[in-house]
Design goal:
Length: about 350
């Protein structure tokens, strides 16, 4: 019989991670462990780490719900489980739990080696280019991060904006461009909905002179007519992020993309309901000639690995993904994932930590 259990780890940030929703110092991750009584040494692992202020399932009753789900799963005494069947066991209102069970099932099917797909990335033969993430903070802190990322060989940086006064943020972007022009460095910015609809286009005009790759979520989610206008008139390509969260019905997903016509969508499996849910968004985007990239949502290395494995399977080679969050925690799960020269690699030098 298949058996399921869960464990928890409270991840501690190496610095207060400032977002538009406040500063984070700790983030709780729950791990699903799936195994069969006839092969107890083969354990599939998946991570559910709902994000405060963003995940639909970041709720006070999450752990109680998880505990009840595990008990009900074991009561069913299942002999087999496919990833698609796993999704049917969890409602779409619990996207992080869906992601965890789907990942654990896929991992178990492939021998519990944390290698979900057979790709050049999972075999350690090719890396995935990633954007270096520059967190919100005072100007000195942001400059320090930028210098470090450039020294480490990143050719794509993503800056969180909206946390400082706009003039200071423009000055920081000007400093970056004085050091590295667009032919050497791709610049992405993420506003996390910080601009009001009436001011967004004016600010985007000022940002355009820095030849940015894109701006994520310039206005708050849920304002589709205003967003459509911003996407149509913006001199900076617009990427949708928070706008996708909670949108699980295919007809509504189609309506959003048809109306707003963004340049990009950003896919976070923890927030969208897993790997297959993200692939559904990919297919829909491609029918509308919209590009996409995958991004982690502050998961530990377990969740980050699953998203990276999906990127290795589906992403356009050479296009930077948002997978550079593995170094955020003092007590991350030890794994073969590492970053070198602005690329995420799956190496054979280190092994996965055994989680109790």
């Amino acid at each position: 019989m298949l058996q399921l259990r869960y464990s928890r780890r409270d991840l501690r940030f190496t610095f207060p991670a400032r977002t538009s929703r406040g500063a984070l110092t700790q983030h709780s991750a729950y791990y699903l462990h799936l195994q069969h009584t006839q092969q107890p040494h083969v354990i599939g692992l998946g991570e559910a780490a709902p994000l405060a202020g963003l995940s639909p399932d970041h709720r006070p009753d999450f752990e109680a719900t998880l505990d009840g789900f595990v008990r009900e799963f074991n009561r069913r005494q299942l002999r087999e489980l496919l990833p698609q069947e796993a999704l049917e066991l969890v409602g779409p209102e619990w996207p992080a739990l869906r992601f965890a069970l789907e990942t654990a099932t896929l991992d178990w099917q492939h021998g519990g080696q944390r290698q979900l797909y057979d790709t050049a990335f999972s075999r350690g033969e090719a890396g995935i280019p990633i954007n270096g993430l520059v967190w919100m903070g005072d100007a000195a802190f942001m400059r320090q991060q930028i210098e470090k990322k450039l020294t480490e060989g990143y050719t794509c940086l993503k800056l969180k904006i909206g946390g400082l006064d706009f003039a200071t943020e423009l000055a920081i972007l000007a400093e970056i461009r004085a050091v590295a022009g667009p032919e050497y460095l791709t610049l992405r910015v993420d506003a996390n909905g910080a601009f009001g609809p009436e001011e967004a286009l004016g600010k985007l005009e000022q940002l355009a002179c820095f030849e940015l790759h894109s701006i994520e979520q310039p206005i708050q989610a849920g304002q589709w007519p205003q967003l459509a206008e911003v996407c149509r008139l913006s001199p900076v390509p617009v990427a949708l992020d928070e706008e996708l969260i909670g949108l699980t019905e295919p007809a509504r997903q189609e309506e959003l993309l048809a109306l707003t016509k963004p340049a990009y969508i950003i896919l976070k499996p923890t927030l969208l309901g897993g790997l297959q849910a993200s692939q559904q968004w990919m297919r829909l985007a491609e029918t509308h000639h919209i590009n996409w990239w995958l991004t982690s949502a502050l998961e530990s290395n377990v969740g980050l690995n699953a998203i990276s494995q999906l990127a290795g399977l589906c992403a356009t080679p050479g296009f930077p993904q948002g997978l550079g969050t593995g170094q955020l925690y003092h007590n991350n799960v030890a794994s073969p994932l590492h970053i070198r020269g602005g690329q995420l690699l799956y190496g054979a030098q280190s092994q996965w930590e055994e989680l109790e």
